[in-house]
Specification:
331 residues, alpha/beta, Rossmann fold, 2 domains, seven-stranded parallel beta sheet, binds magnesium ion
Length: 331
Amino acid sequence: MTLAEQVLQNRRRAIARLITYIENEHPAAQAELATLFPHTGRAHLVGVTGAPGTGKSSLVNELAKGIRATGKTVAIIAVDPTSPFSGGAILGDRIRMRELAGDRGVFIRSMASRGSLGGLARGVYDAINVFDAAGFDMVLIETVGVGQGEVDIARTAHTVLVVEAPGLGDDIQAIKAGILEIADIFVVNKADKPGANKTAAALRAMLDLGNPTGGQMLHHGVLLSVAATPPSPAPPSDWDYPILKTTATAGDGVDTLIETIFRHHHHLTQSGKLADRNRARLAADLENRLQTELLRRLLARTPNGTLSEIIGKLVKRTLSPYNAVHLLLEE
Ligand SMILES: Nc1nc2c(ncn2[C@@H]2O[C@H](COP(=O)(O)OP(=O)(O)OP(=O)(O)O)[C@@H](O)[C@H]2O)c(=O)[nH]1
Ligand SMILES: [Mg+2]
């Protein structure tokens, strides 16, 4: 049986092995993924992002437990837990291991950044497809809300949670990180700590002021804006951008959060936005892959030494960057 066939039967070892192939860019991965692709498109993709240390891993752990209690299966992709920004991630991962170990309805996988963020993004998209094809009802994708690339990974989910916590300074961290506008649901975690109400109120004030359009992904890239269906003329948003308080360490507020995640999925389905988001996600993925492949092909046909020669001319200012691009493309 091929790896893909085993994945379709939800065999855990095959899932793990294929994701390792994806991470290592093993040549066998592409064909297996191509076999799986027609079987994808069912899973509810939930992105969880926010500033370092806000409790994302703890929350994802609680979400997984609560979602399992509803009978649904869930896969977790923790993106780049080895990031220098992550202090608590390893702890979070250990908690998960202990509490969720042995449950075949849960699959937890960390994916680290090897080389470019673009490569990581492609790997995460591929891993999502593996879990989707394997039949997991929900895929939770945790990324630290630091850096555009990692935020983009979370933003392409169907439902995006931005996690905030009190006591990280006076500012709302999501504003600093520029991720306020991608949220569908705001979570003020560490509600057991002083200042949680203040943080929630500040978020509410920001939302009322800014009236965000919320995770519409219309500014994802050049190709995307062409490929995405044109936005209908500013429909009044019928999603209320809830702000929920949770204490992940005690499990408080998690049930309401899960209900809200399901309600958001229902909203997306009813309004037709789910199809828009799927289209935007596939377009963004295609754009990412095209960029990489075109660059790879260009560099492959560029003679040895040409590139460093051109860079030398840039340094000496005898060639402009515009002309360098033309030169390389016409070489
Ligand atoms: N008091 C309190 N502490 C919490 C809560 N949730 C998480 N923590 C603690 O906050 C720390 C960070 O939690 P993580 O879940 O690792 O946070 P994270 O956002 O995943 O962290 P990074 O992945 O490093 O960005 C840990 O020590 C948790 O025990 C909470 O609701 N209340
Ligand atoms: Mg974490």
